[in-house]
Design goal:
By secondary structure, this protein is mainly beta. It has one domain: Immunoglobulin-like (Sandwich), CATH 2.60.40.180. Helix content is about 0%, strand content about 60%. It is built from no helices and 10 strands. The strands form 2 sheets. Strands 1, 2, 5, 8, 9 and 10 form a 6-stranded mixed sheet that branches. A 4-stranded antiparallel sheet has the order 4-3-6-7, with no helix packed on it. β3 and β4 form a beta hairpin. The chain starts with a strand and ends with a strand.
């Protein structure tokens, strides 16, 4: 069983993608992968990892939210986990 993971960061205050956002994929204390979002706010973090519990850590362009960490339980298949962020709020969901 293999797992893949991608993300998309949207700056809702600016009304568009957030380019240049640092994103890390961690399993326990270990960093599995890291990336920076492209001009469209997208990043692929893993193509073939084992199922399990991971942390997806964002460093968004917000004066308030300096670090947003999501704990995810990933099974076989592809996961797309976007982050919507502004100076006043953040939200995430399981995308397709």
């Amino acid at each position: 069983m293999s797992v893949s993971l991608s993300t998309h960061v949207l700056d809702t205050a600016a009304g568009g993608p957030a380019a240049g956002v640092s994103v890390e994929l961690r399993r326990g204390a270990d960093e599995i992968a890291s990336s920076t979002t492209d001009a469209d706010g997208r990043a692929r973090l893993a193509e073939a990892i084992e199922p399990g519990v991971y942390s997806l850590v964002f460093h968004p362009p917000s004066p308030f939210f300096r670090r947003v960490e999501l704990e995810l339980e990933l099974d076989a298949g592809h996961y797309h986990v976007p982050l919507l962020v502004s100076p006043f709020s953040c939200a995430s969901y399981r995308g397709s």
